[in-house]
Specification:
Elements (H helix, E strand, L loop, with lengths): L3 E5 L2 E7 L4 E6 L4 E4 L5 H21 L11 E5 L5 E5 H6 L3 E2 L2 H5 L24 H16 L3 E2 L10 E9 L2 E12 L5 E12 L8 E9 L5 E10 L7 E9 L2 E4 L9 E3 L2 E3 L20 E8 L2 H18 L8
Antiparallel strand pairs: 1-2, 2-3, 3-4, 5-6, 5-7, 8-9, 9-10, 10-11, 11-14, 12-13, 12-16, 13-18, 14-15, 16-17
Helix pairs in contact: 4-5
């Protein structure tokens, strides 16, 4: 016979010996009590009061695999007329009968089926829990960044373009992309970059990102709209980081700027590519500005950029620690 361990009042364990038709109860202090369920009404009533909490606990564990359908308690009327809660199999072996099947289904021992209420305002998104809203906003970002960005000139055999994947690690956005771009003023040359960037939305400030505007490759026809992230370079570390690798004969290696040659024509500035600094501004002397880190997420259209910015703002807001207001 298997004894089920419980902790309810003085009860410590309960078991039913089907062959001996005996209920076994263990109380605190190591005492064991047993009795046939078809004894007199007084004994049955005492057992019912003692066993009812135990049966309810066993039933609560049933969805977790501890109980089985055959062990579900029912209101069982014994031969002496006493009504007790027993497993259906035990009730049958004791010669009892189920009082009311419908009543049993509505008893507290049976889990109730609860229907989720509809949103009063009809806007399901507003009534969803914060983690669900966060997941939806993150999905919008991942989907937008997953779109391929390619040049519009169909005659180029090796077109410029951005192939990108994005994912979230908690509140950190991780973006991996491959960029093929043509650069140069009089003569154009192509470069293949592998760019990895990480943005921590729990720590970054809202003022440090937004829509930069339309951007075009210097030596080609790759166009898009850029969303930027920009922070001053800090000795203690930044909330954004970026690595830029260039494909050479020996594979990908870190890319540091060399000689005059910006890669992007952006609003108000020409932008370079450089490891650790990202899309750095031109300092006017043929080199990059090294006091800031800048990440660009380039998408196909202004509409995509606006949707991306809005989703980024939502993630930033929900990832920030909630401030408790005090009077």
């Amino acid at each position: 016979m298997e004894m089920k361990k419980i902790n309810s009042g003085r009860l410590r364990a309960i078991g039913y010996d089907a062959r001996a038709r005996m209920l076994q109860v263990q109380l605190d202090g190591g005492m064991n009590q047993s009795g046939q369920t078809q004894n007199n009404s007084r004994r049955s009533s005492m057992l019912t009061k003692m066993l009812q909490p135990a049966i309810l606990i066993l039933l609560a564990l049933a969805p977790l695999g501890v109980g089985h359908a055959a062990d579900m308690a029912i209101d069982c009327r014994l031969k002496g007329g006493t009504v007790v809660q027993l497993p259906a199999a035990a009730c049958k072996m004791e010669g009892g009968v189920q009082v009311n099947e419908a009543a049993s289904l509505a008893s507290p021992a049976s889990p109730a089926s609860v229907a989720m209420p509809e949103s009063a305002g009809g806007d399901a998104a507003k009534d969803q829990p914060p983690n669900s809203k966060l997941a939806e906003a993150q999905k919008v970002i991942v989907d937008l960044l997953g779109k391929l960005v390619v040049e519009t000139t169909p005659l180029n055999k090796k077109p410029e373009g951005i192939e990108r994947t994005a994912r979230f690690d908690g509140c950190r956005l991780v973006v991996d992309e491959k960029l093929r771009i043509e650069y140069g003023n009089l003569y154009s040359a192509s470069m293949n970059f592998k760019i990895n960037s990480v943005i921590d939305f729990q720590k970054i400030d809202r003022e440090e990102f937004g829509v930069l505007g339309k951007i075009t490759s210097k030596g080609g026809d790759l166009r898009g709209v850029a969303v930027y992230f920009e922070e001053p370079r800090k000795k203690g570390g930044n909330n954004i980081c970026i690595s830029v690798l260039n494909l050479g004969k020996g594979g990908y290696t870190k890319y540091t700027s060399h000689g005059p040659g910006a890669y992007w024509d952006a609003p108000r500035d020409d932008l370079w590519m450089a490891d650790e600094y990202g899309y750095a501004k031109d300092n006017g002397w043929g080199d990059v500005v090294t006091d800031k880190i800048r990440i660009l997420l380039i998408v196909n259209s202004s509409d995509d950029a606006a949707r991306l910015k809005n989703a980024l703002e939502e993630v930033n807001t929900m990832c920030k620690p909630q401030q408790v207001k005090t009077n």
